[in-house]
Design brief:
alpha/beta; TIM Barrel; 10 helices; single chain; globular; 255 residues; binds 2-phosphoglycolic acid
């Protein structure tokens, strides 16, 4: 397991936007070059599973590999399932679990919690995604996030909770056009809120060492603002992470 860093996390979630080995190699090459020049960031590429072994065997080690999901059982007759151990043996160090694009397909907190446990048992770091579907004036969304977070990490032994990364991704801000990312000050509030929820389980000191990232329509301008404001421990970037120019710029902003 890779130890948490105080450096700024840049996680690229390639989603299903890269669909050939040729494209994957080109993008990963650009990412590696940008990362080699950047000593202040931890760069992670969460790539489609078929590319893991290929990219993992490359000589450029400036970028950590991650997967976008794993199956909720360790092994067995699960056609199409990809186990945490298989992902780990392909070179991944991180796995996104509970992404909203999987939650909308019916994935519930209990399943996500199983996945997070298996990821940790395989020696990798789960990036646990949480985020409200919508905001309401009464602040009920805070309870929604708390329930999601606690449900998604239920089952992780208390002493292992410090090994997770949390990605706060308000569903209403994901996949929007330019200008869709959340305001840095609001992000700051949510990062603190999530750390407070975690501190109720693991204590303040441990909780505040768990990286909390922001994700949702991060483009070049939003990244610059959020990095500048220092309000989150990193970014989880979807569409712009497969845009070579945009992700290269975003990586260069980390100071
Ligand atoms: P987006 O995706 O940056 O394309 O909005 C973020 C995410 O879903 O992780």
């Amino acid at each position: 397991m890779v130890k948490h860093s105080k450096k700024f996390y840049i996680v690229g979630n390639w989603k299903m936007l890269i669909n050939s080995i040729a494209e994957a190699k080109t993008l990963f090459g650009a990412l590696s070059r940008a990362s080699l020049k950047q000593k202040k960031a931890v760069v992670i590429a969460a790539v489609p599973a078929p590319f893991l072994a290929l990219l993992g065997s490359g000589s450029k080690k400036a970028v950590y590999l991650g997967a976008q999901d794993v199956f909720q059982e360790a092994s067995g007759s699960y056609t199409g399932g990809i186990s945490a151990n298989a992902v780990e043996s392909s070179g991944a160090k991180y796995v996104i679990v509970g992404h909203s694009e999987r939650r909308v397909q019916g994935e519930i907190d209990a399943v996500i919690a199983r996945k997070a446990v298996l990821v940790i048992e395989s020696g990798m770091t789960p990036i646990v995604c949480v985020g409200e579907r919508a905001r309401d004036v009464d602040g009920k969304y805070l309870a929604e996030i708390k329930n999601q977070l606690l449900g998604s990490i239920a089952g992780i032994p208390k002493e292992k909770i410090d090994s997770i990364i949390v990605a706060y991704e308000p569903v209403w801000a994901i996949g929007k056009a330019f200008g869709g990312a959340m305001e840095p000050t609001l992000i700051h509030e949510m990062v603190i809120y999530i750390k407070k929820v975690l501190s109720e389980i693991v204590g303040k000191e441990t909780a505040f060492n768990i990286p909390v990232l922001y994700g949702g329509s991060v483009d070049d301008a939003a990244a610059q603002a959020i990095i500048g404001a220092g309000d989150a421990d990193g970014l989880l970037i979807g569409r712009m992470s497969v845009n070579k120019e945009a992700i290269t710029k975003i990586i260069s902003y980390v100071k």
